[in-house]
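Quick one: structure tokens for this chain, please?
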Amino acid sequence: MAGKNRPPRADAARNRDRLVAAGAAVFGARGLDAPLEEVARRAGVSIGTLYNHFPARENLVDAIFPARLAALDEIVERSLADPDPWKGFVGFIEGLFALQAEDRGLNDALARRFPHAPELNAACRRGFAQLGTITDRAKESGDLRADFDPQDVVPLMWAMSQVIRESADVAPDAWRRCLGFFLDGLRADAARPLPVPALTQEQVARFMA
């Protein structure tokens, strides 16, 4: 029979779990460009088994990082619970980049576009919707400059991901200094007219493609 040599379902599930755990460890340490062969070796399976479960790299990415981004939900809760809307906004931004700094794979994932990673994309959309609520609070309090748009976080993520990637082995907290400069520029009392508008969602999608 064609299915005679197929592994039992329990074995297949265990292999998948091992691959997800191995992928999280390897990508977390080396970034998303790490060889998939290394992931397979760490999981104790063949590269063929890896491709049976995850035909493309982004399928493995989609199995790993939505769970990592779930940590944003806790950051959002703390941000919205803070009675000071500005501190809540800063807490969200700092929490987001702290997650990126802790995991090179996540840092890469947030700086790229994966059209065939629906779970990851859904987690990102949820995060931006939550950022909109946090941003509105900070604007209404008069602390955050009125022309700030949640889409403005996207180019900041691109820039900060590069800072995190390049400084991780030498000065892993260097991103915090860069972020401090950025946040000071977002205070309402420091606002000056900007030469161009914020990126649109369509522009962001085109850039990342």
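The chain has two domains: 9-55, 67-208.
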